[in-house]
Every structure is written in C-alpha cells, then in structure tokens.
Design goal:
Layout: H1 7-18, H2 40-48, H3 68-79, H4 85-97, H5 99-118, E1 119-134, E2 140-154, E3 159-170, E4 178-190, E5 193-203, E6 212-223, E7 226-235, H6 241-255, H7 259-269, E8 273-282, E9 288-299, H8 303-306, E10 314-326, E11 331-341, H9 346-352, E12 358-367, E13 378-387, E14 415-427, E15 430-441, E16 447-458
Antiparallel strand pairs: 1-2, 1-16, 2-3, 3-4, 4-5, 5-6, 6-7, 7-8, 8-9, 9-10, 10-11, 11-12, 12-13, 13-14, 14-15, 15-16
Helix pairs in contact: 3-4, 3-5, 6-7
Length: about 450
C-alpha cells in the first residue's frame, strides 16, 4: 500500500462509507471547497463532528497528499463517531493499518488529557445588594459585583490542592476593584479521614453563629456517624467582633484626646489570634442530629475586655452546642448556642458588659437549594438570631463580607431579631437569594432593618 495516500481517492471513499447519508446545512468551513463540489456536504458534516479540521487558514487543501500521521489523526477522531457494525469494521481495518501512528498519537492524547484533568476550574459570579437602616442614622446601601475562581489540582489518589481567587468591585464607589487570593490549601483523604493544610476554609457546627470563614493552619476530620474535627492555626482578626469593638473604643479614646492610648488599642485589635478547637458532630439520615464545640482564641484584641494592663495575649474560650430535627428531607429545625468565657476584670466588664458574651439562633427551613443545580429548586427559612460580639467570632453573614460562602443570613454582631428569606434557581446555575432582617441593637437597643439581595451564577 502506498503510504502517501491520494486525498481524493481512499480518503473520500472512507468518508462516504462512514457517513453515507450526511447532508450539512451549516456555512462552509473550508474556503477552498466550493458549495457545488461533490464532497462539500460530507466535509461540512465531518467538520461539525470534529473529525476533519482542516488547516489554520480555513483551507482544506484537497489536492495534496495526506501523510500517514494525518490519516491516523482522522481515524482516531472518527473512532468516537462510529455507531453501527459497518463503521466499526472499517475503523478496525484502518486501525490495523495505522497502528504505529495511532499508538504514538494515543500516548500524546492521553498525556494531554491527564494534564487537562489534573486541574479543574469552578467558580461563581455574584451581584450583591444590601441596605442597612438603624434608628436615628442614615441608611447605608452597598452594591458589589464579585467574581470567584476556584481551581483544584490533583496530586495523586489521596491529595489535591485547592485555591480560591476573589475579585470584587464596589459599584457605589465606581472603584477599580480588588483581587485577593483568599484561600490556598492542600487536602488529603484517607478513608473517612480528611486532612487540610494551608489557608483553610472553616465552617463549624453551630449553623454559622460562631465561625464561618478561613484561617491559616490545619483541620483534621475523621469518623462516619460520629465526626470529630480538630483545628489549629492563626486567625486574621480584622473581620471579627472583637476587632470592631476595639476600633470603636479607639475612636472614643481619640475623641477624648488620648491619641497614644487610641493607637495602642488599634494595634491590639489587629493582633492575629492563635486558635485551636474541636468539634464533635453526630450526623445520620435519622431525624435527630447535633454536636458540641470548643474553641480557644488568644489575641491582644481581647485584652481590653479581660485585662488592659496585661501585656500578654488574653485568652477567650468559647463553648457551643447545636441540635437539629428533620421533619422531612426538606423541612429542618435547627438551634445553636455559644458562650464565651474570659478572665473578668471588674472595671472592664462594667464598661463593656452590655456587648454580650453569648449567641444563639433558632431556624426553620424548607426546601432544597444546592447552588442552583436544577432549575426551579428553592429553599425558604425563618429564624431568630442573637449574635454577641465575642461569642460570634465571624458569623456566617453575607452582610459582613460578600465573599463568604453560601449563607443566606444577614444578622450581624451585636444584633438580635427576626430573619426571613429564601433562594430560588431561576435557571440551572443561576440563583436568586433574598433576606430581610428586623430587630434591634444589643448595645444601644436601637431598632434596625436590613435587606439583602444576591444574584449568583455558578460555573
């Protein structure tokens, strides 16, 4: 057999045998094949199936000889389109003739697929609108567009590396936007044990009232019905309730002319916390579930509560309990309570005792919304929340930062009241989330209302 095959002979016979009834209606993909040419319809159909691709200048070059390697490429692509016995018999004969070239091509294709499959990208785009109204103050509104990319790179059968890149644009300020690598962590799975190392996402037992964020360190989760989670590392305090209290206290000191003391409090409020903790959670398909949690945080951000004169970092311990009941797979009632403990300086507690060192929440939800995975899926909820400044370290509230995960809640530190809201998949991978909060401030007792609306698109 002549291995420099004439294009118009063997190749066209092969094409007509493989696709004898093709009739293409698409535009001409090859500029050098006229619409009235006898091979036009077949070539258009084969191009639509990705079998014949032509050259980079949109030419077909049917008057040149085809190399063995080119024929092997076409044969490899046609293998995926073979349907009946006649097609497969023809391809088997072609594979036998070009087995060496196909072997070489197969190695290249497999290596390429391996590299492509090793890194997978998912993400989401959000448009977030919030409106906060506090009695006696001006209404604050915020409109933010954010875009998130989440790559996952497979290392081996046990380990992978994950990341999260967040980009946000404040529409109200017409700002240039910000780009942050918020999370990077390695994850290893051995049976029922999952290990995470790096800038790790963290969601604790208590339905988001204690800690729903990320920190630098490790988590180890193991177990089946009973799950144990161990965590340890460093936590950025700039999104915590303690930080907000510290900065407020610093402003008061500066207003009184105590600039040195104000600077000291600001520095303490920014001090990263050392954190470690443990969760014990019981989860089954049965109706009742629940768990316990314990966390220890050590940071100078807590010094002005525990002991302003102490140069070392003050420690805060938080204990929690959560309980849930499933009336049905879609209808769930949950409750959670958390309490913070610290060494109490009488003067400081008298000054800050109304900020509350405990948090609790009760929520009834109905529906099944899983990141708009199916058009029409929805979920609604009704909740009452009480978020203390210290016990709720970083609660799962989109009102704090639009970059947190998928919570619909809107309550914030130092607030208590009712929430109602829901989510609805407008289309597959397109969802709408809306929440409304009405209540009061724990410290000032001023009435407040908040609205949240979020359009989210997943890919």
């Amino acid at each position: 057999m002549n291995f420099q095959i004439a294009m118009k002979s063997v190749f066209v016979i092969y094409l007509l045998c493989l696709f004898p009834f093709c009739r293409a209606e698409a535009a001409n993909h090859f500029r050098d094949v006229p619409a009235d040419h006898w091979s036009y319809d077949v070539l258009q159909e084969l191009h639509s199936h990705g079998i014949v691709l032509g050259f980079g200048d949109n030419s077909y070059r049917g008057d040149r000889n085809m190399t063995r390697y080119e024929m092997a490429q076409i044969t490899a692509r046609a293998m995926a389109c073979a349907t009946d016995k006649r097609d497969k018999d023809l391809i088997d004969r072609l594979c036998a003739e070009f087995q060496e070239e196909l072997k070489d091509l197969g190695v290249r294709v497999k290596e390429l697929e391996k590299n492509v499959d090793a890194v997978k990208w998912t993400g989401r785009a959000n448009y977030l609108f919030t409106s906060d109204q506090i009695e006696g103050r001006r209404t604050r509104e915020k409109s933010i567009f954010s875009f998130r990319m989440e790559p996952t790179a497979k290392i081996n059968k046990h380990w992978k590396v994950n990341g999260r890149l967040d980009m946000s644009l404040n529409i109200n300020r017409n700002s240039a936007g910000t780009v942050k690598m918020n999370r990077v962590w390695a994850e290893g799975k051995y049976g029922n044990t999952v290990i995470r190392l790096g800038k790790v996402p963290l969601s604790t037992n208590e339905n988001g009232i204690v800690l729903e964020s990320s920190f630098t360190g490790f988590t180890v989760q193991t177990g089946k019905s009973w799950k144990v989670l161990l965590l340890g590392g460093r936590l950025n305090m700039s999104k915590t309730g303690a930080y907000r209290i510290g900065m407020g206290y610093s402003r008061e000191l500066r207003a009184m002319g105590m600039t040195k003391e104000a600077a000291e409090v600001r520095a303490m409020a920014r001090d990263p916390a050392t954190i470690f903790g443990v969760n014990l959670q019981y989860k089954t398909n049965k109706k009742i579930f629940g768990g316990l949690g314990y966390y220890h945080l050590s940071s100078k951000a807590y010094n002005f509560i525990a002991d302003m004169e102490n140069e070392s970092k003050a420690g805060v311990n938080i204990g929690s309990v959560n309980l849930g009941y499933r009336f049905s797979p879609k209808c769930v009632l949950t409750g959670a309570y958390a309490k913070a403990y610290y060494s109490k300086d009488p003067d400081m507690i008298e000054a800050f005792g109304n900020m509350q060192d405990y948090s609790w929440e009760v929520e009834l939800s109905y529906g099944n919304y899983r990141k708009a995975s199916k058009k029409g899926e929805w979920k609604a909820y009704l909740a009452y929340s009480n978020y203390g400044y210290i016990s709720s370290v970083i609660p799962a509230s989109s009102n704090i930062d639009d970059m947190y995960d998928d919570d619909m809640g809107i309550a914030n530190w130092g607030e208590r009241g009712w929430e109602i809201g829901g989510s609805w998949a407008l289309e597959k991978n397109v969802g709408l989330v809306a929440s409304y909060f009405w209540g009061s401030s724990i410290t000032s007792h001023r009435r407040m209302k908040s609205v949240l609306a979020r359009l989210e698109m997943f890919f």
